[in-house]
Specification:
Helix content is 3%, strand content 28%. It is mostly beta strands.
């Protein structure tokens, strides 16, 4: 068997069924890992009828690719195979495909429809949206869609289902969905309010990263795992701040919080000041990443708190960290260079 390997490809390309090497013939069976990845001048590819697998990131960032015909011989499409093919408008899933990886069509911003052969035993589509055959798992909503209603059959969705969709304006999760995957709504920049139903038991990391328009999280009062106050997302007993809406201009935090989760204030670009209540004991990694307007962070705890690495990563302007005066030398003697070199001032 032969594999198409990574190279610098451009223009219109035809991949043969067979190749000859050292007087032997080999069947082209797979497009290998990142074979065409970051080929901005690739215009079209004609795939052979011998192909079985399209590998990870095979056509990732092929920004000029507008269409591709997947042969009926293909059975596997691996993770991120067409990631950020920004001009790809439609795709057809043949009857023999049995596996589709994660984020295969993520950030394909002009993708309007994913069609599936009716004879396929593993996948189906409805109104251009891709599901497993029984429509229990949502796989991908095309990025051009601004409205989407979950069918009553859906019980879960993949991390790439909405990721990068800058058009979707509202999401109403059905009660059957219990988990929000990591990066689930990353870069869904038109979402404004997010409702978390009673049955949601887990929310993955960076699920709402760069959702710049979200002004409020609304958690169902019967949810046994999460809660909200002033639109901010917390765990149930409000001891962990999970995510501050990125559209917030100012915040009033509950006094009960003990921990600021990793990335909790990430991309909150309008906040100029944050005051952490006295019970806070820990600030997670990159908690304030890309908080461009942030000038001061007040830490009211009378004890040294745990600061995980570079909490202001990605900023160009220095943030003043205000703590009790007696704690300044304690923080400055930290073993962590990132903590030691913060700009501390005494609390007045």
């Amino acid at each position: 068997m032969a594999i198409v390997i990574e190279g610098k490809y451009e223009g219109h390309i035809t991949i043969p069924k067979m190749i000859e090497y050292q007087n032997k013939e080999f069947t082209v069976d797979k497009i290998g890992y990142a074979a065409f990845n970051k080929s901005p001048k690739l215009l079209s590819v004609k795939l052979p009828g011998s192909l079985r697998t399209i590998g990870q990131r095979a056509f990732g960032d092929c920004t000029a690719l507008k269409e591709i015909n997947i042969p009926a011989s293909v059975i596997t499409i691996e993770d991120a195979a067409f990631f950020r093919c920004i001009n790809l408008k439609s795709i057809h899933i043949g009857q023999n495909i049995i596996y589709i990886g994660e984020s295969v069509f993520s950030r394909c911003e002009k993708l309007s429809a994913i069609e599936v052969d009716k004879k396929n035993l593993y996948f189906t589509s409805a109104e251009g949206v891709l599901y497993d055959k029984e429509m229990k798992v949502l796989i991908k909503v095309p990025d051009t869609k601004s409205l989407y209603v979950f069918p009553p059959t859906v019980v879960s969705f993949l991390s790439g289902s909405f990721e990068g969709n800058s058009n979707i304006r509202a999401i109403d999760l059905p009660d059957a969905v219990k988990s929000i995957p990591r990066n689930a709504f990353e870069d869904c920049s038109s979402l404004k309010v997010f409702r978390i139903p009673a049955n949601v038991t887990s929310i993955g990391s960076s699920a709402f990263s760069r959702c710049h328009a979200i002004a409020s999280f609304d958690v169902d009062e019967h949810n046994k795992n999460f809660s909200s106050a002033d639109g901010i997302l917390y765990n149930l007993d409000k001891t962990i701040l999970l995510k501050c809406p990125e559209a917030k201009t100012k915040v009033q935090l509950v006094e009960s919080i003990k921990e600021i989760d990793a990335y909790a204030f990430s991309w909150c670009r309008k906040l100029t000041e944050v005051s952490l209540p006295e019970k806070v004991e820990k600030i997670g990694m990159s908690a304030f990443v890309q908080c461009d307007a942030l000038k001061t962070l007040k830490i009211l705890s009378k004890k040294q708190i745990s600061i995980q690495g570079e909490i202001f990563a990605g900023r160009t302007k220095e943030v003043t960290v205000i703590v009790h005066e007696a704690l300044i030398p304690v923080y400055k003697s930290s073993n962590s260079l990132a903590v030691k070199e913060l700009n501390y001032q005494a609390l007045k």
